[in-house]
Each structure stands twice: as C-alpha cells, then as structure tokens.
C-alpha cells in the first residue's frame, strides 16, 4: 500500500477540541486539495463525543479517526506515540501535521524517529511542490534571520509542526458530511513506564499576547526603555496587550514573553498597532495575519507599511501622546 492522504492531529482538552485543531485544518485543506486526496484528522483522548468530532468534518475534514479511552485521558508521550505509530502503519498517511504546542512538539518527533520519517518543526508556511508533489515546509532559521524551505523526498510520512495562530481557524459549514471512524484502543499500546503525577503551570510571568484581541507593539524607534510608557498607556486605554520587536527585547527594554515574530510569538489579533517598528521579515511573519494593522513610523519606506491597512508617517514622539490623549477622551465619553 502506498502512502496517501493528509492527516492533522486534533488536540483536545477535557473532551473539547482546541482551536489549533481547526487552524491545522486550514493548512491541511489547502494541501489536500492540491494533491487531490482526502483530508483526515485524528483524535486521541477520552470522552470526546462524536458530536465534538463532527465539528472537524464541518470545518473541512473528510474523515475523523476517533480513539477514546480512559487510559488516554492524560497526555503521556509514550502512549500517544504508540497509538500514532499504529495508525501510520495501518493507514499510511502521506503527510501528518501537528501543532507546535507542548504536545505536538513532544510526540511528533518521537513518532518521526520510530517510523523513520522526515519532520520539520515550527513551520510558518506549507505548500506542495508542483513537480514532485512533495511537501514544502518553511520555517525560521539562524535565529529567525532567514526562512528555510525544507522537503523530505525519500521518506514517508512527511511530518511538520505548525505554529499556533499562524493562520485562521477553518470555518465550520453546518451540514457538511464526512466519516467518523471510531477506533478501539489496544491495551498493548500502553507503555507503562510513565504516569502523570501532577500538572503545574509556570509561575511569575502571566504575559499572554497570543490570545489578545488588541496588541500595541513597540520597536527600536522608541529609542529607550522609558518611552515604552507610551505603548503601555495605549494598550491600557484600548484594553489590549503590549508586544515588542526583537530589537526592543534584545536591548532589555521589555521582557521576552512580549516578543512578536519568528523567534517570539505568532499572533493574530483583531487589531495590531506597530509603533517604531521597521518591519523586519521575522517580525512580519509573526503578525501579518492580524485582521487590522496600523503602523506609525517616520520612514515612509519602512517594510511595516507593506502589510499595514493604515500607515502613518511621522514622529512617533509627537503622534503617540496625541493619539493617547484623544483615545482617553473618547473612552471617558463612553463611560459618561
């Protein structure tokens, strides 16, 4: 049997699909259509209903492979890897996509080694090479300064992890039909050497720009850390989060969790305001999918204007305080 089809790994939490599962369908649908093959998703977990799985069908999957079992409630890489290897051996998908999340970054490399497959991690773009039909996997390299396109022509399946928020989730179409295949769990797939004892989140840094609807980001054009106060003020007025360019972070003007770009976070807010950011390629790749982009820069040829919906050319030290003052006035009017 030859390898065929595009598969996406659909992560769940407490029996519910995570948003990244639908983002992967956006990527997978494009690839499957180019190859003229089925797009499938697979779910490994517990208490995931057929109704929940059907959301993947409505969002573009042709088939969903669903494996539920209480022993799969917790993510344990050895167990999930055993399940995935068994699926690869039985169904032979040509391409497998996962999210560059803790789960995806852990289990996909584990599987790739075991099935002797090629894997490209942390991709920002995926495409199909017309001449060969190979998967083209683009990811940042050399600290995010260049983008490398990689393909694996001699091994199958071709595997890649994709940055969350690097594309929009696939829209669901009510009534779209597909096939849900419920799989029985083989107890022999349990590894037994590891078990989940506890789960703890990192303490001390509560920055979350990835889920923010509005981001106000500052760059090298602010000239010094004290001037980030203007950025914080605008973000506070708008109820948004503060982002930053790599330059601003490397100069210790703001901490790394605020960094947007290939070497930082990929974000897709409703509104992204870039202040004093020139628009290096590694930064643009991390925010260009925002719904609306406003840029303020004194250089009319700055690359940030290439992706902006509104571009303001001028001295940010004159413009930003005036904008903040006007925004504050409008907010006060609404509160009254």
UniProtKB/TrEMBL annotation:
Belongs to the ETF alpha-subunit/FixB family. One of its GO terms (molecular function) is flavin adenine dinucleotide binding. Binds 1 FAD per dimer. Residues 155-174 are annotated as: Disordered. Keywords: Electron transport, FAD, Flavoprotein, Transport. GO terms for biological process: fatty acid beta-oxidation using acyl-CoA dehydrogenase. FAD binds at residues 245-246, 259-263, 276-283, 297. This is Electron transfer flavoprotein subunit alpha/FixB family protein. PROSITE patterns: ETF_ALPHA. Its cofactor is FAD.
């Amino acid at each position: 049997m030859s390898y065929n089809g595009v598969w996406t790994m659909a992560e769940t939490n407490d029996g519910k699909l995570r948003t990244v599962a639908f983002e992967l369908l956006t990527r997978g649908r494009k690839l499957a259509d180019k190859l003229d093959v089925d797009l499938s998703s697979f779910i490994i977990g517990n208490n995931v209903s057929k109704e929940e799985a059907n959301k993947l069908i409505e969002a573009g999957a042709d088939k969903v492979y669903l494996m539920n079992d209480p022993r799969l409630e917790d993510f344990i890489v050895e167990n999930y890897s055993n399940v995935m290897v068994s699926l690869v051996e039985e169904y032979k998908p040509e391409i497998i996509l996962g999210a560059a999340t803790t789960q995806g970054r852990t289990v996909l490399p584990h599987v790739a080694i075991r099935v002797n497959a090629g894997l490209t991690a942390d991709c920002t773009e995926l495409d199909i090479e017309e001449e060969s039909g190979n998967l083209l996997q683009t990811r940042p390299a050399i600290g995010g300064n260049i983008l490398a396109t990689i393909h694996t022509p001699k091994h199958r399946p071709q595997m890649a992890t994709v940055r969350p928020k690097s594309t929009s989730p696939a829209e669901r179409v009510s009534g779209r039909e597909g096939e849900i295949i419920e799989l029985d769990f083989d107890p022999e797939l349990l590894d037994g050497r590891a078990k989940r004892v506890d789960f703890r989140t990192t303490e001390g840094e509560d920055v979350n720009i990835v889920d923010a609807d509005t981001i106000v980001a500052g760059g090298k054009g602010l000239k010094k850390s004290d001037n980030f106060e203007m950025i914080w003020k605008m973000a506070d007025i708008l109820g948004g989060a503060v982002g930053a360019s790599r330059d601003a972070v490397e100069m210790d003007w703001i901490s790394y969790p605020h960094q947007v770009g290939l070497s930082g976070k990929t974000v897709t807010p409703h509104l992204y305001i870039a202040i004093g950011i020139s628009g290096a390629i590694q930064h643009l790749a991390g925010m260009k999918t925002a719904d609306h982009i406003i840029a303020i820069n004194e250089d009319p040829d700055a690359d940030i204007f290439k992706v902006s919906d509104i571009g303001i050319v001028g001295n940010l030290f004159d413009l930003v305080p005036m904008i903040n003052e006007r925004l504050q006035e409008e907010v006060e009017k609404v509160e009254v």
